[in-house]
Amino acid sequence: MKLDEINRIIIENNVLHTMHMDIEPISFKYNLLLSLSDDENSRDKVSFYFYDVSSVKMKDIGGGLTQFMHLKISIIDIFNDRNKYIIEDIEDEKLSFEFNAVDFLG
To answer: Which of 4, 17, 23, 76 could be bridged to 35 by S-S, CB 3.0 to 4.6 A?
Structure first.
């Protein structure tokens, strides 16, 4: 899936439902699952799995409904062998992290 299409899906689904980090036991690289929806009552979610996550920053997440007003993925360095992309909440700076690859899980 192209980056523009992923960004469109993320903007349309700005309510945080699930965020889960895990670690790969052999490589010790962190991965992050992010599930979003278009409103707080929706059962329909879209999920993304981010690989080799680093430089995670979170602010004002939890304690109630969390919305990202403009979450966007950008290219850092496509030729970098580690982290090629960054996702960040441009408007409120609630979330940002770098990552190597992403899968759209639906």
So the answer is: 17
